[in-house]
Amino acid sequence: MELIWTEVTLRLIMAAGLGAIIGLERERKDWAAGMRTHMMVCLGASLTMIVSCYGFSDVLNNDHVTLDPSRVAAQVISGIGFLGAGTILFLRPGTVRGLTTASGLWTVAAIGLAAGGGMYYAAGISTVLALVILWLLQPVQRRIATRYKKKTLVITAFPSADSKVIIEKIMDNKFLDFPNFSMNKSDKHYEIQVQFNSINKIKMAEIIKELHSIEAIKKIEWITT
């Protein structure tokens, strides 16, 4: 069986369009894998699927030749890994970014295979679901994740500051629960980091107010991990 040129064009354009829709969601966050990357992955996967299904029709006319059309398409799923790995960033121990974009590229490749195979509904509904996961569910994920993230108080002070006084103001408060703290010192300043499991906001506000009254302290800020 051979595809007419209009059907080939439709499948390729649809794959590129669906990839662009998902890529735009990543583009708004200024990721390296944006709209064009997703379009190329989806288009390439679609073309691979077309070739896998129909590119060997002349060979199959021979009665002594058998071919599994899924073998070529299967290589797309395994081969897309090198692109996904390129979008993953290891910022610091315990912090990784880009896993969602990498999984998005893998999904886009599957969407391209579906479009190339003529499964238009499957390709379309997968694109809609991918957008729901990447975009609409993001605020829900952030709200849930915030509850489990640990807050770290970072205090930056001049070398002349009395570190013992700063640490005692935090450690002597029974309303604060923290598993550990660390201090890094240099010629220009030293930095104290205190990680909290739970925080009494009223008491914490009072402590921070007292710390701000110490002139040797340069900056106090919160970070989440």
From TrEMBL:
Family matches, as Pfam families: MgtC
InterPro entries, A to Z: MgtC/SapB/SrpB/YhiD_fam (IPR003416), MgtC_SapB_SrpB_YhiD_N (IPR049177)
Main location: membrane
Residue span, MgtC/SapB/SrpB/YhiD N-terminal domain: 12-142
Species the sequence originates in: Flavobacterium kingsejongi
Membrane-traversing stretches: 6-25, 37-57, 72-91, 121-140
Annotated protein name in UniProt: Magnesium transporter MgtC
GO cellular component terms given for this protein: plasma membrane
Cellular location(s): Cell membrane
Family of this protein: Belongs to the MgtC/SapB family.
Mode of membrane association: Multi-pass membrane protein
Source domain of life: Bacteria
Record's keyword terms, sorted: Cell membrane, Membrane, Transmembrane, Transmembrane helix
